[in-house]
Specification:
The protein has helices at residues 11-19, 23-29, 36-42, 113-130, 136-142, and strands spanning 31-33, 46-48, 54-57, 67-74, 79-88, 94-99, 104-108. The protein is α+β, with helices and mostly antiparallel strands and 143 residues long. The longest helix is centred in the last third of the chain and has 18 residues, at 113-130.
Length: 143
């Protein structure tokens, strides 16, 4: 059900906004989920992907256990290029294959002060969201 009258639910307009999005918005659209270990460590579900993160492909033709480093984030095409994921062209040259960031899991983050601030902010807001929730124990105590 539509709740905000200022936001459209039209498929046509949403697709237009997605594919005509500027680079700073595409950065957020190109977010990847964190692995179970990182999710437990930082209490954050997903984060925008960047160049030197290590990822594992979980969907599609190239899925598997091998972990690769992100070589390039191509925001114009909404894809990332990963270290050892390549294919042969007809002339024999090898080229990187573009993979959508939602189809990978971040296994290792490239940390710097800005990334640390983002993780702290997201974790803090997540803790505040849990503050008002009732658990089964608290409900049983009151009744």
């Amino acid at each position: 059900m539509k709740r905000n009258k200022l936001v459209t639910s039209s498929r046509r307009k949403n697709r237009k906004r997605h594919f005509n999005a500027p680079s700073h918005i595409r950065r957020k659209l190109m977010s990847s989920p964190l692995s179970k270990e990182l999710k437990a460590k930082y209490s954050v579900r997903a984060i925008p992907i960047r160049k030197d993160d290590e990822v594992q492909v979980v969907r599609g033709h190239y899925k598997g256990q091998q972990v690769g480093k992100v070589v390039n984030c191509y925001r114009k095409k909404f894809v990332i290029f990963i270290e050892r994921i390549q294919r042969e062209k007809a002339n024999g040259a090898s080229v990187n294959v573009g993979i959508h960031p939602s189809k990978v899991v971040i296994v290792k983050l490239k940390m710097d002060k800005d990334r640390k601030r983002i993780l702290d902010r997201k974790a803090k807001s997540r803790q505040q969201a849990d503050k008002g929730k009732h658990t089964e124990e608290s409900v049983m105590e009151t009744s």
